[in-house]
Amino acid sequence: MDAPYLHPDVETLPRQERRRSQAAAFARQLAAVAASSPFYQRKFAAVGIHPSRLPLERLTDLPFTTKDELKADQEVHAPWGEFLAAPLTACVRLHQTSATTGRPLLILESRRDWQDLSRIYARALYAMGVRSTDMVLPAFSFGPWVGFWGGVFAIQELGALFFPSGGMSTEQRIDTLLSYPITVLGCTPSYGLHLAEAAAKRGIDLATRSRLRLSWHTGEPGASIPTTRALLARRLGTRVFDLPGLTEIAPWGFSCAAESGQVHLHEDVIYAEVLDVESERPVGPGERGELILTHLRREAMPFIRYRTRDLVEVARRPCPCGRTFLSFQGGVLGRLDDLKKIRGVLISPAHIEEVVRGAPAVSEFEIVLRRLQGLDDILVRLEAPEQALREGLLTELAANLRLRLGLRVTVEAAPSGSLRRWDHKARRLRDERQEVPF
Ligand SMILES: [Zn+2]
Question: For tag attachment on the chain, is the N or C end more exposed, with fewer CB atoms within 10 Å?
C-alpha cells in the first residue's frame, strides 16, 4: 500500500491547528490586499473598516465580493480591473470565465498563484488514486476556460504521463483511448457520456475496450449526482471522482478514494463560510447554504468573501479517509442562480438530472420551462432507443419525476440526434416563460 495522502501534514492537520494557520495566512493576505488593491481599498473604506489588523473571527465585518462587481470593475478599468493587485509583469497565466451572457471575466494568475493551483490539483488527483504509473488524457479543448489546464501541471507534478488531446475530435479521442494504455480520463460529466455514446455508435464499449480505470470530472456537478456517477462508471469502466471549482478562485474541492459522497475543501489555501440563503447566518453540519470563499494566498487577483452562488451542505461526519478538511456532502448541490420556482416549488436542474440519469437508456435530454394556459409546466425532452420507448420509458420517468419533485412533468421523446451534445458546461435548461414569478 502506498501513502494515502500527497501532503499528509496539511491533509490531516488537527482542526485547532488548522484554524491557527488559517488565521495567520488571512492576516498576511489581508495586509497585502489592503496595500495593493485599489478595488478592495474602496470596498473596505465604504464600510469604514481599516482591514490591516482585522482577525479572521471578524471576517464577517467585511463586505461580500460578487462576480457582477468584478465584471463592472473590469468594464470601467478595462481590461483587467482594479482588483488586479500585482503588476501585469508578475502574471504568468490568463483565463476567462465561461460567460453565457455579456463579457467574460478575465482572471490572471501570478507564478505563485499557478504553483498553488497546481499543487492542490495534484493533491486532489492523488487522493482519487492517480499515480506516477498512470497515463492521463484530459479530453479538453485547452482554450481560455481554466478547466483541465491545472490538471496538466498536476499530472506532471505527480510524475504521471500526460497525453494531450486539445485539438482532437471525439472520434480521434476514442481511437486514442483504444490505441494507448491510457488509464485516467479527465472531462466534464456531459462529455464523458457523449464520448461513450459516440463509441457505442461504432459498436465500441469503452468500459471493456479501453484501459481506463479512473476518471475525474469538473465543470458540472454530475460526478457527485449518484445516478450520473453510476452511469459514467458503467459507460467508461472507471471509478468516478468529482473536482468542483470556479475559474475565478481555484479548483477548490475533490472527492477521495473513500467514495463517501463528500468533497473536501483545500483549507490551507481557501477559507470557506457556508451561509443560510435567507438569513446569511452560518449553517451547521447537515445544513445547506451558499458557499462563500476567501482565498488565503491569491496574489494577482485576490478574493475576499466571494459569493460563489453554489449551494452546499456541510458534512455531518468525518470522511473515512481521515482528512480533516471541511467537507460537503454531495458536492455542489446546485447553483443558486439556476434554482427555478415552478408552481411555488423551488427546483434545481440537478434534481431532474438525478432522475433522468437513473434511466441508462436516455442518451441526451433537455428541460424546458414553459407556460401552458397560464400555468407553469416542466417539459423534459429526451433521446432514447425505440425499444426503451415501447417499453414505457416515458411513463416511468414521468412517474419518477413526479415522485422526486412533487410536480407533474411532461416527458416527450425527441428525434435521435436532435438534442445538443455538450463538451463542457452543459446548459440543458431553457426557461421560455415570459415573467418568472420569483
Ligand atoms: Zn475523504
Answer: N
Enclosing domain of residue 181? 129-242
Question: Number of structural domains, the chain?
Answer: 3
In the predicted model, is pLDDT for residue 435 greater than 70?
no
- Using the mean position of ligand 1's atoms as its centre, give its distance from the Cα of residue 314 in Å: 14
Q: Looking at the domain assignment, is residue 152 inside a domain?
A: yes
Q: CA 170, CA 421: separation in Å to the nearest integer?
A: 12
How far, in Å, from the CA of 315 to the mean position of ligand 1? 11
- In the reported structure, the alpha carbon of residue 116 is separated from the centroid of ligand 1 by a whole-number distance in angstroms of 21
Q: Does residue 292 lie in a domain region?
A: yes
Of 315, 336, 357, which closes a domain? 336
Residues with Cβ within 5 Å of ion ligand 1? 256, 258, 319, 321
Strand partners of residue 106: 96
Task: Please check whether residues 25 and 106 belong to one and the same domain.
Answer: yes
Mean of pLDDT over the chain: 93
pLDDT tens, residue by residue, 131-162: 999 999 999 989 888 989 999 999 999 999 99
CA of 345 to the centre of ligand 1 (A): 33
Pairing status of strand 288-295 against strand 270-275: antiparallel
Give the DSSP per-residue string, 41-62. HHHHHHTT--GGG--GGGGGGS
How far apart CA 273 and CA 295 sit, in angstroms, is: 12
Domain end: 289, 319, 336, which one? 336
Cβ atoms 241, 128 nearer than 8 A: yes
pLDDT one-digit tens code per residue, 191-234: 999 999 999 999 999 999 999 999 999 988 889 999 999 999 99
Q: Does residue 52 have a pLDDT over 90?
A: no
